[in-house]
Write a structure and sequence with these properties.
2 helices
């Protein structure tokens, strides 16, 4: 499955955001904090407008618990 392939590439927990209809962004938890990601996505959405915007919500995949949760 695709989720299994991603798990093999990213060995730790990671943040996921869906800033537009055309993209998903994945960031390792060890490299950045959720607030930085949220601020960045809000900035991107302000530039491109509502027709392209999907969400400014940040999700975290907890690898040890195999859980995707909204932050």
């Amino acid at each position: 499955s695709i989720r299994r392939q991603r798990q093999m590439c990213i060995r730790d927990s990671y943040y996921v955001v869906f800033p537009s209809l055309h993209e998903a962004m994945i960031h390792p938890v060890a490299c950045v904090n959720a607030e930085e990601i949220r601020t960045s996505v809000q900035h991107i959405n302000a530039i491109y407008g509502e027709e392209e915007m999907l969400s400014d919500r940040v999700f975290c995949y907890r690898r040890n618990r195999r859980l995707l949760q909204l932050l």
